[in-house]
Amino acid sequence: MIPNNQSFCNDTSTYVRPSSSYICNCNKFLVQDLTFERQYATLYTSRLRISTELLQRQINKKWGPSANVKKLCDITGDEKVVVIGTIFKHMELHPSILKEISDEHHMVPEPVTEEYTKEDDFLILEDDLQRVVLCGNIDPQSNVTGINVAVLGYTEESGKFFVEEYCHPSVADPEIIYSPSIDKYVVLVSGFSLNGNSGIFPVQLLIDYITGQVGGNEDQKKFSQVVRVIIAGNSIGKEKKRSSNKSKLLARKVKSETAESMAILDRLISELVSSVSVDIMPGEFDPANHLLPQQPLHPAMFPKSSKYATFNVVTNPYEAVIDGIRFLGSSGQNVKNIRAFSKITEPLDVMQKMLDWGHMSPTAPDSLNCYPFLNEDPFIISQYPHVYFCGNSPKMGYRFSDNKSVMMIAIPEFQQTNCVLMLNLRTLEVQPIIVL
Questions:
Q1: Which residues contact 365 (CB under 8 A, 6 or more apart)?
Q2: What is the pLDDT of residue 120?
Q3: pLDDT band for position 140 (cuts 50, 70, 90)
Q4: Local structure of 223: helix, strand or coil
C-alpha cells in the first residue's frame, strides 16, 4: 500500500488525496531467460496445449460431455466431429521477406499498405499433426492467425472441413470486486509523443491539474481523488526520418533528440510522482525493446522521477490490482495489428474479440513481433479483468463487454486529442477530460 497524502490548497478548501492498495502483477510479462535460439513454433505449441483444457470446458458447456472430439488424422468419412486446433489465415497481401529482397535487388516492390485483408482470404485449422482448410459458418474476415478454436462439423468430399459451429477457450469471470466506498479515480493516458520541446504545454497543464496547481474548487476536488496515473506508452514521439541526401553522421542528432525528450519527460513525471503514484509503460516509439512483451523502461532514464517510491516502470502488456479492481491492458500494438489483418476496424470491437478469443495477442509471432517463449504464453487470458484498456487508439471509446463484466477502454493519443480518461474505481464509470 502506497499512501498518497498530497494536500490540495486554495483560498477556501483543502483536499487530501486518499490512499489506495496496489498489487503489480506484471511479473508474468518479464522475460527471465533471454535467448533467441529456439523456433517460434514452440509458442504456438504451448498456446494450444494451455488452451486445450480451456477449450474442453467450453466444448462440454456448448455441446455436452459426449461431443465427439477427434484429431484431424483420426477423422473417417463424413462423421460429425469436434476438432481443436489453431487458426492460420491465408492472406495474399501478408507482408513477405520477398519485399525486402525486391528492394535489395531493385525489383518492383510489393505495394505498401496498412490493411492486408482481401475477400479471397481463407482459414486453415492446424492441430499438432495435420491441417485442413475451413469453410462454412466461420468468417475469415473476423478471425486472425493464432486463435485457438474448437470447430464442430464434418469433412466434405473436396477435403475441406465444413464448420457448423465453433467456440473459443473458456475464460473465468472476474473475481468479486471489493470496490472502495468512496469515489477514487485512476487516470488513463497515452501518446504524449514528446519530441524535444514540442507538445510540452498540454502535458504540463494536465500535470498541473492532477497535482492541484491550477483549476477551481471543483477541479481540485475532482483531481484530489485520483490515486494513480497509468501512462500507456508512446511518451516519446516517433523519430523523424532523415533526408536521404544528408550525411549518415547526422544520425547522432536523432539520438540527441530522444535524449532531450527523455530528460523533459523525466522532469514532467517527477512533478507528477511528487503528488500521485504513476505507472509508465513502454510503447511502440519509446526507447525500449521492440518485441512483446516490452520490458520496463530503465529507471536510469528517469534520474529525477526514480527517487520517488510513487514512480513505477512497468511492462507492456500491464496487469495490476488497484483497490480490488483488476486492470489488464497494452500500449496498443496488439490492437493495431489485428485491425490491419482483419476487417474489425473499431478498437473496442477488437478488444471484445480478444476477450472472446481468450488471448491478448493472437497474431504474435506471425505478424506481431514477440519473444519466443518455450513452455508458456503470457498473453493468454484465462480470467477476465474488471478493466481492459489499450493505449494510443485512433479515437476514444469505452463500453462494457458483451457479458457486462469488463469495462473496455480505448485511450486516445494525447498529442492528437488532449484527452485523458478518468475511471471511477467505485462504479467503473469513465469520464473523458479534455485539457485545453
A1: 40, 43, 372
A2: 83
A3: very high
A4: helix
Q: pLDDT tens for residues 313-361?
A: 999 999 999 999 999 999 999 999 999 999 999 999 999 999 999 999 9
Q: pTM value?
A: 0.90
> Which residues neighbour 157 within 8 Å (Cβ) at sequence distance 6 or greater?
none
> Pseudo-torsion of CA 150, 151, 154, 158, nearest 10°?
-110
Could you write out the DSSP letters of every residue in 234-297?
A: --BPPPPPPPTTS-GGGHHHHHHHHHHHHHHHHHHHHHHHTTSEEEEE--TTSSS-SSBSBPPP
pLDDT, residue 3, reads: 42
Least confident stretch, 38-52, 298-312, 420-434? 38-52
Give mean pLDDT, residues 176-195: 91
Q: What are the Cα distances from residue 309, in Å, to 223, 270, 298?
A: 20, 11, 15
Neighbours of 62 (CB within 10 A): 15
The C-alpha atoms of residue 328 and residue 195 are separated, in whole angstroms, by: 28
Reduced to 3 states, what is the DSSP secondary structure of residue 428? coil
Output the CA angle 144-147-151, nearest 5 degrees.
105
H helix count then E strand count, the chain = 8, 19
